[in-house]
Design a protein that fits this description.
The structure is a homodimer. The first copy, chain A, has about 400 residues and is of the alpha/beta class. The first copy, chain A, is about 35% helix and about 20% strand. Chain A has 13 helices and 15 strands. In chain A, the strands form four sheets. A seven-stranded mixed sheet of chain A has the order 3-2-1-4-5-10-11, with helices on both faces. In chain A, helix 1 runs antiparallel to helix 3 and helix 1 crosses helix 12. The longest helix of chain A has 19 residues. The interface between A and B is large, with 68 and 68 residues.
Chain lengths: ~400, ~400
């Protein structure tokens, strides 16, 4: 009999607390586990012995937690050293003090690095503490797993919002180029979700991904041709689009000065490209950055995503009893109707690797293929019923 | 027996199509009305004889239309002249050609000006065409009516999103000042809605309205004091905040240069204030502009708002049979439980007037009083069930 510690790490999402709810629910039921500790602010809570007991959360509170965006326990972006320094000693101290036999770490790439290092450390000193990773990232860029919890909800928000922006920008007769900037510095998975409303005729006209070198002249030609045809052009871009030399469009100040525009530009890629379209093509423009709501819109989550996130948390606890250095993967079943099953994979094969968006799913550098729609549509399906208080969703906050 | 023409005007909202659905539904039932025409792109459709027949919309399509954001017929921002020029002649031509006896104009301030002028024109030439205005604006700044259709849904989106951003920005231990920019150049009604999630402990820490002269030093002191206490500071600002001399914070380039910051700044008030906080106080910042989704988030509308918007459209048609130069007003009943009834008011008393946010509801220049919560909370209540297609709301587009 031992205790379990759970931590959340990396950027918040709308589904990370569903995984936490899954961990707590299953840990409370498991006869091998006595106390469920939550680490405040990712690994920092373990380093500073800043833990909270989670057993007292009621079923009602856990149902609210499941639907609450953010990261209930707080998060961190702290990487452990490659050599076993005093931080590892501090961690061991906290683990020993609280008799922690199992650790579940919910997070993305950097967090899986922590799981990899921690599990290797405990094995190296033969200390009996199992460490399991639970995937989480709106970027959807973890390898081995079919997709990541958090992606479906962010994708649903992006898809719906793009369709609504399409309706909004269609209302005036006069022309305009609207450029919408979507999260995902290195992987275009979320940007590609802007394609999903095309099934109801409300997708963007052009989509630019970070996986393809961005060419300004080609972009301007694309926009110009569409503007001359339709007058209203809706463009979706990844925040991370960059040219063949790796220069981000979000930091065009030097390039644009060299181009003779004379602007010192702050702000994102969409704002910069709007300025350039205005200067070069003379068209009205509007930049929209979807910003934080993409990853925290608890009011617009995918039921598939929330359910899967919870299942991953539950599975991690069951797995932690007899496994360490593992990572919970979602494997898509080979059936007509969408379904997944969960498997454990070696954490060392996951950490520090990135799953790029398949280049063969990008068409002409400015569109997304049907293969992606088939892949992603099931992940954004289903709606979650929320509890509302005076018109606002009721979320659970840590006390 | 005559025909009815309906037009939409001004900025799109999530509720303007509910009013249109109300107009069409009621006009189809009314024995005085034969054909229901829609004017494409506001008054422009009347000027250019660009009308569509709306009678064929099925009940199913009307139910989709009711929940579709944007402006189904298209919109315009075109003001008629004060003198009866050739545009009035063109309008009369279209009206005569299509035997139009009733016009319903759904829109905000400028649109009510059009209703005022058009109805006066028809009266001046003794032409039997009744013109009725239906309120619409997320800005909530029309006089005489308790509130405007569109405001409740935009307010619900702002309130929910603010609460989610609050959760998102709370996850890290390190400090940050997050500034969220909300629509409403001259009226702070929508910005004030950021206060609503305070009832679940998720409101912003500071709120700045365009009705109070913005003082940069006071703002920096407010932020600094809170940062030293909590490290995480969430600020909601109206896009229209300006100093005592009327200088908008969204165009601080000259001021900031004079202040020695040396930046040429594009972008909105939030981005500019973030730069200043970083420079003067040295804190991490993040600017979030809620942008278009505020007025077009059909996935997060208020049921109260959508129902009322539809009622206003229906009432306009019933009123148009025997009235002209009127405007549909929502009057709040003096009862414990929230309810409204509809009344007609003189359009000439509405046009070109603005209802400011009550100054007595603004506390210390950076907070909103409970009176506003009592006023606005009922307007954002209730959720609308949408039809989804592969995870995305299904909306109706004009063919």
């Amino acid at each position: 009999m031992g205790n379990l510690l759970v931590a959340q790490s990396g950027g918040p999402t709308a589904a990370i607390n569903a995984s936490l709810a899954g961990v707590i629910t299953m840990a409370k039921q498991n006869i091998n586990i006595e106390i469920v500790y939550g680490s405040r602010y990712g690994i920092n809570g373990v380093l500073n012995d800043n833990l909270v007991v989670l057993n007292e959360l009621t079923d009602y509170e856990l149902s609210l937690l499941e639907k609450t965006p953010g990261a209930y326990l707080g998060s961190a972006r702290h990487l452990l050293s490659k050599v076993y320094d005093e931080e590892y000693e501090k961690i061991l101290e906290t683990v020993k003090k609280h008799n922690i036999s199992y650790i579940c770490f919910i997070g993305g790439n950097d967090s899986m690095d922590t799981v990899s290092k921690l599990s290797a450390y405990f094995e190296s000193i033969s200390y009996p503490c199992n460490v399991i990773g639970v995937p989480k990232t709106v970027d959807n860029d973890l390898v081995l797993t079919d997709h990541c919890p958090g992606f479906g909800s962010a994708g649903k928000y992006v898809a719906s919002t793009l369709s609504e922006i399409k309706l909004d920008t269609a209302v005036y007769e006069k022309g305009r180029v609207t450029i919408v900037e979507i999260m995902g510095r290195d992987a275009g998975w979320l940007t590609a979700c802007s394609k999903l409303p095309s099934i109801i005729g409300l997708g963007p006209d052009l989509i630019y991904m970070p996986e393809v070198a961005f060419d300004l002249d080609t972009f301007l030609n694309d926009v110009d041709a569409l503007y001359k045809k339709n007058k209203k052009v809706l463009v979706a871009i990844s925040e991370g689009i960059r040219d063949k030399d790796g220069n981000y469009m979000m930091a065009l100040s030097t390039a644009s000065k060299a181009d003779g525009f004379g602007h010192t530009q702050l702000g994102g890629a969409a704002a910069n490209l709007c300025e350039i379209v205005k200067e070069r093509l003379g068209y009205n423009t509007r930049a929209v950055e979807l910003s934080l709501p993409q990853r925290c819109a608890g009011h617009m989550v995918s039921k598939t995503d929330i359910d899967e996130a919870k299942r991953c948390g539950e599975f991690a606890v069951m797995s932690a009893i007899d496994n360490t250095a593992k990572f919970v993967c979602m494997i898509r079943d080979d059936s007509k109707k969408y379904s997944i099953h969960l498997e454990l994979k070696n954490i060392h094969e996951v950490a520090n690797k990135v799953k790029p968006f398949p280049k063969e799913w990008i068409i002409n550098g400015n569109d997304i293929s049907e293969e992606f729609i088939n892949y992603a549509a099931p992940l954004i399906e289903g709606e979650v019923e929320l509890e509302y208080k005076l018109g606002v969703p009721n979320y659970l906050r840590i006390k």
